């Protein structure tokens, strides 16, 4: 019978070169730096707001659009932050593969675990939360079925 360690997925079958992992980590760090300097960074997304009055005033469709924009904007900020964190975690994981857990500084390991925990919490929150994206799309579709609703 073949031992699971002999079938790939790590151990002696994990073939890598330290230079390859170092180059990969540098690419990840470069992407992370580009993200931080781009309009997609959490800081820049947070600064991109639209006031409710920009959609008009006095009718519910404008208020609904404003509320939906705010919800999507909040989700974009969260996803941008999570994406950056995942890139950071990937860089740390590359170091772990190269040096092992004992070769990594404690603060990097704590950050790696913190990122994993944040992502898991986000996933559980999304699974448990009412009003997820499909629900919001259905609500918008329901309103569009009766376009004269606001004018009755």
Note poorly predicted spans.
1-10, 136-152
Number of strands: 0
Largest sheet: none
Q: Please tell me how large the radius of gyration is.
A: 23 Å
User: Based on CA inertia axes, which overall geometry fits?
Assistant: elongated
- Derived structural class: mainly alpha
Number of domains: 1
**Helix proportion of residues, in percent?**
55-70%
Percent of residues in beta strands: under 5%
How far apart, in Å, are the first and last alpha carbons?
A: 75 Å
Strand-and-helix sequence, N→C?
A: HHHHH
Kindly state the mean pLDDT as a whole number? 77
Region (Disordered): 120-152
Looking at this protein, list some descriptive labels.
152 residues; mainly alpha; 5 helices; 66% helix; 0% strand; disordered N terminus; disordered C terminus
Structural overview:
Residues 120-152 are annotated as: Disordered. With 152 residues, the chain is mostly helical. The chain has one domain (18-138). It has five helices and no strands. The longest helix is centred in the middle third of the chain and has 40 residues, at 60-99. Residues 1-10 and 136-152 have low confidence and may be disordered.
Compact overview of the structure:
The chain is mostly helical and 152 residues long.
Strand and helix layout:
Elements: H1 18-37, H2 42-47, H3 60-99, H4 106-128, H5 133-144
Helix pairs in contact: 1-3, 3-4
